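Example 9 (inverse folding). The structure is encoded as follows.
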């Protein structure tokens, strides 16, 4: 029975979607027609930019217009694996098309007919070839779309399935309510929401697509920021345990530190202490470049909390990092009788049980752990401070879960989140808009600037030479590879395992080395890390598991293989593993890809060590879509991930201010309602609640 669709209709009623397909859609958060319509394409194939076959480069993804000359019959290679080939041509050249497992297509392709083919051009010994291109027949009076949307979906859903479902629903765009007041739309030249949504799925040209994106991004940003401001207000109303400096012997804590705090650290500590003295929960971000000394600041807050009679916890994204924090806390806190324990999933069950018991009965003061902290089994006695390290690795929901755990009866815990990822100011407003910010904009004294060099795979002898020299002088070296083992696809990329084998059997035979990657057992990883930290091994070949937070001051060389396959911010993080001691350090970026674009990108790394500058450059290159995508793994559900233009933020600034200053204006009501819905949907209300 056909149901008349509305925006609220469950998607299983859309033509072509049954129960099972509906379930697949639901896994993407698409329950109703309106969810489908706001599930925007992640990118567009520019199939309308047709080029002559002869001008396509080897490996280029391109669109060509072809006439089919000849088709072979499908051949079954083995089992039901079949292949057929077509000879096709345009005015400039001929081209062979190869199709696997599409025998039905062979039947429908007609000699002499013209098609638009979109695929990757391969230039081989026998000429040009495209494997499994996407074909669209060119028919008179039926122009093909210039842009073809691509949605971020996974099997069993197909692009075709979602495109056809979207096509069914597109007429309903008219029913999408406009939350943006007309006055704002006029002054910023924005489209109606309904038009914008329609264009997102079916853009005619680049201009209207850009405008649609801008319109949607504008309203999302404004709604989001209103939501954040709502959260802040809400936060101020919540109660938390006020902590006091009185009789805590805090002076002793600072005197026990092996260094004196930098000015920036002192400032941050003061800001944090001032927050902790309030009867409302702290929600503060401690942002500072790698090596700026965030851990000591966190330790001061933890000290204060424990000396007030409450527990505290630190959640870190990796077990390596958690173990390192445990060591640091012991060093900083155990002299004062503060008991810290590690809680990570890699511990033996009995050990976990023991730690959990200690947390529940309060005999353990500080828990340092990973996600294990937020599983159901963990209960605190009276945790009043939750610290989240490398916060960008966690989603909003995980932060919220930690806070849920750490309540003292009706009181919410104070929260300190730390991030070494310098987020450009423009974006930090969005990502951390619900938090107060303390900035560590100064590195501890005596740090040497890290010299960054760009090399090619041909320089390996020189690199080994440098590593040997550094180790002779007491240094240690990291070598980071993008893959764990050979055979993981893109084969030109170096794998840690084979690199390690090669290194230890040939190039650096006499130097003890370790191998570290994410597939190893936690205990193995910890051992490898400990050996490297202690100097038992001098070289550590690793994947990016060492990216976050690892601290070995003796390390002075960082070699990053296939540097081209990492984002700039990630490279900066990796580079931050060296330059932590007093000896000068060097970071070598091995560029495995000979393209000017990559060279240009890597040169930014060579030219600056300032994390914020790197982040700005990264943002400009990749666009904020990636920033959100990677960092927040979709939890900040900006439907329009393509907030293409960061310059938009100052503009939304003024709107948000205007709206907040005139809250009762009926024109703004829909915005506030949307903000509330946003919080419900993301659980964002829990971020600091
Ligand atoms: P991050 O901010 O990256 O988490 P860490 O807290 O790991 O940095 O600190 C990096 C290194 O700097 C550690 O070895 C730490 O002991 C040291 N450190 C921190 N603060 C100071 C300081 N004020 N003076 C000297 N060394 C410091
Ligand atoms: Mg750290």
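The amino acid assigned to each position is listed next.
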């Amino acid at each position: 029975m056909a149901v008349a669709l509305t925006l609220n209709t469950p998607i299983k009623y859309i033509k072509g979607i049954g129960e099972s397909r509906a379930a697949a859609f639901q896994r993407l958060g698409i329950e109703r027609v309106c969810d489908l319509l706001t599930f925007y394409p992640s990118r567009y194939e520019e199939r309308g930019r047709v080029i002559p076959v002869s001008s396509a480069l080897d490996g280029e993804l391109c669109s060509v217009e072809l006439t089919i000359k000849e088709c072979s019959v499908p051949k079954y290679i083995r089992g039901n694996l079949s292949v057929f080939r077509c000879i096709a041509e345009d005015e400039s050249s001929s081209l062979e098309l190869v199709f696997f497992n599409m025998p039905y297509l062979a039947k429908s392709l007609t000699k002499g007919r013209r098609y638009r083919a979109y695929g990757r051009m391969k230039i081989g010994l026998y000429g040009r070839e495209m494997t499994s291109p996407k074909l669209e027949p060119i028919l008179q009076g039926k122009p093909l779309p210039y842009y073809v949307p691509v949605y971020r979906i996974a099997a069993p859903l197909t692009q075709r399935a979602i495109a056809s479902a979207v096509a069914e629903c597109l007429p309903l765009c008219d029913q999408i309510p406009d939350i943006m007041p007309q006055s704002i739309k006029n002054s910023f030249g924005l489209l109606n929401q309904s038009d914008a949504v329609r264009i997102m799925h079916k853009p005619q040209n680049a201009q209207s697509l850009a405008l649609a994106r801008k319109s949607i991004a504008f309203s999302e940003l404004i709604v989001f920021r209103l939501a954040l401001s709502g959260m802040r207000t809400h936060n101020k109303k919540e109660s938390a345990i006020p902590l006091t400096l009185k009789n805590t012997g805090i002076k002793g804590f600072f005197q026990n530190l092996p260094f004196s705090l930098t000015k920036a650290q002192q400032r941050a500590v003061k800001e944090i202490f001032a927050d902790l003295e309030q009867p409302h929960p702290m929600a503060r971000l401690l942002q500072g470049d790698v090596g700026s000394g965030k851990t000591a600041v966190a330790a001061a807050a933890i000290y204060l909390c424990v000396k007030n009679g409450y527990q505290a916890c630190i959640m870190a994204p990796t077990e390596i990092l958690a173990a390192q924090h445990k060591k640091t806390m012991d060093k900083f806190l155990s002299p004062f009788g503060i008991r810290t324990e590690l809680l990570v999933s890699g511990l033996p069950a009995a050990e976990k049980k023991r730690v959990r018991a200690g947390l529940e009965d309060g005999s353990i003061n500080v828990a340092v752990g990973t996600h294990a902290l937020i599983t159901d089994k963990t209960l605190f006695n009276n945790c009043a401070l939750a610290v989240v390290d490398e916060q960008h690795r966690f989603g909003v929901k995980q932060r919220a879960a930690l806070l849920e755990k750490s309540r003292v009866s009706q009181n919410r815990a104070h929260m300190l989140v730390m991030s070494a990822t310098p987020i450009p100011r423009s974006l930090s407003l969005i990502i951390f808009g619900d938090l107060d910010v303390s900035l560590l904009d100064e590195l501890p004294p005596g740090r040497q600037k890290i010299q960054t060099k760009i090399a090619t795979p041909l320089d390996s002898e020189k690199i080994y030479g440098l590593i040997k020299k550094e180790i002779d002088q007491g240094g240690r070296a990291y070598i980071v590879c993008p893959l764990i083992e050979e055979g993981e696809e893109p084969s030109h990329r170096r794998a840690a395992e084979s690199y390690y084998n090669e290194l230890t059997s040939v190039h650096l035979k006499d130097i003890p080395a370790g191998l570290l990657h994410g597939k190893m057992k936690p205990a193995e990883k910890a051992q490898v890390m400990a050996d490297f930290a202690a100097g038992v091994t001098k070289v550590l070949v690793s994947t990016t598991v060492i990216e976050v937070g690892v601290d070995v001051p003796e390390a002075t060389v960082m070699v990053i293989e296939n540097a081209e396959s990492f984002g700039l911010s990630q490279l900066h993080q990796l580079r931050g593993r060296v330059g932590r001691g007093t000896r000068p350090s060097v970071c070598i970026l091995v560029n495995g890809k000979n393209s000017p674009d990559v060279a240009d990108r890597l040169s930014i790394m060579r030219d600056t060590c300032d994390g914020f500058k790197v982040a700005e450059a990264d943002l400009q290159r990749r666009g904020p879509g990636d920033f959100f995508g990677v960092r927040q793994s979709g939890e900040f559900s900006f439907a329009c991930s393509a907030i293409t233009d960061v310059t938009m933020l100052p503009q939304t600034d003024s709107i948000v201010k205007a709206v907040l200053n005139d809250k009762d204006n009926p024109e703004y009501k829909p915005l506030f309602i949307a903000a509330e819905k946003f919080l419900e949907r993301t659980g964002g209300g829990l971020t600091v609640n």
